[in-house]
Amino acid sequence: MDLSIFIDGDQGTTGLDLQNRLRGGEFRVRTLPASLRKDAAARRAALNESDIAILCLPDAAARDAVAMIENPSVRVIDASSAHRTSPGWVYGLPELDAQQGERIASALRVTNPGCYPTAAIALLRPLTDAGLLPRDYPLVIHAVSGYSGQGRAGAEAHEAGAGAHSLKVYGLALEHKHVPEIEAYAGLTERPIFVPSYGSYRQGIVLTIGLHARILPADVSGARIHECLGDRYRDAEHVHVMPMSSVSPMTERDPQVHNGSNDMSLAVACNERTGQIVLSAVLDNLGKGAAGAAVQNLRLMSRASQPAS
């Protein structure tokens, strides 16, 4: 089926990357010319004439766009954080559990995950589901993203030398908008501490979570956590669990190794002497963390639009 896709907010970082990923593909992609991007009537018409609308907008504008949709057959993928914990919206992380891909495929409204939450939830949800991580564990999550995570204006300012930095830690008010999303979909009952930062490279995320074996259930080890993640993602196309070896243990991770792809890799490092475990995830904040995830969800949703054979 030749689906019509309208990208609202096509000139932002996610919107531009999304167009590149969809160019020459199986969908008819529509955007508005520059003269009409802020024209409410033109946006309303484009939204209601599409099969699937992808919103690459700030949160308030995304809510406005959804309110403009009157055609009941229009389906939506929202790449903003406006609806990530809203009732009636399906969370767009196909790897969340065994049924999530089908939920996305049949959904009318899909909310794309945040880039940091994609990494944190992929590491944590299998462990809380399996009872290996207490849901009230006092988690501290650290992450470094490329500066493109600041959005198009922030990235352009960085590249122009205005406010450029080698590393910038932020979110220290402990009110980052991604935290409720992580808490909800990782299966937690206590709010984690989340400390994000921007590096001086353009894109790619490395996220780490430290665990203490002494406050985990008695039979939980780094090896058992690794086995749990391996079992969960064994058949996942885009999520890969890296080998764990006591002979040649992992000592470093490069946040840029998956740039340009929709892949994410997870790893477990542990020190049995100290009783400490570190979980880590690497992904492209513009790929699996944004436009790549939107394309993955779009392809799932398009399956449900195919005529029965």
From TrEMBL:
<dbReference type="GO" id="GO:0003942">
    <property type="term" value="F:N-acetyl-gamma-glutamyl-phosphate reductase activity"/>
</dbReference>
<keyword id="KW-0521">NADP</keyword>
<keyword id="KW-0963">Cytoplasm</keyword>
<dbReference type="InterPro" id="IPR010136">
    <property type="entry name" value="AGPR_type-2"/>
</dbReference>
<dbReference type="InterPro" id="IPR050085">
    <property type="entry name" value="AGPR"/>
</dbReference>
<feature type="domain" description="Semialdehyde dehydrogenase NAD-binding">
    <location>
        <begin position="4"/>
        <end position="104"/>
    </location>
</feature>
<dbReference type="Pfam" id="PF01118">
    <property type="entry name" value="Semialdhyde_dh"/>
</dbReference>
<dbReference type="Pfam" id="PF22698">
    <property type="entry name" value="Semialdhyde_dhC_1"/>
</dbReference>
<dbReference type="InterPro" id="IPR058924">
    <property type="entry name" value="AGPR_dimerisation_dom"/>
</dbReference>
<keyword id="KW-0560">Oxidoreductase</keyword>
<keyword id="KW-0055">Arginine biosynthesis</keyword>
<dbReference type="InterPro" id="IPR036291">
    <property type="entry name" value="NAD(P)-bd_dom_sf"/>
</dbReference>
<keyword id="KW-0028">Amino-acid biosynthesis</keyword>
<dbReference type="InterPro" id="IPR000534">
    <property type="entry name" value="Semialdehyde_DH_NAD-bd"/>
</dbReference>
<protein>
    <submittedName>
        <fullName>N-acetyl-gamma-glutamyl-phosphate reductase</fullName>
        <ecNumber>1.2.1.38</ecNumber>
    </submittedName>
</protein>
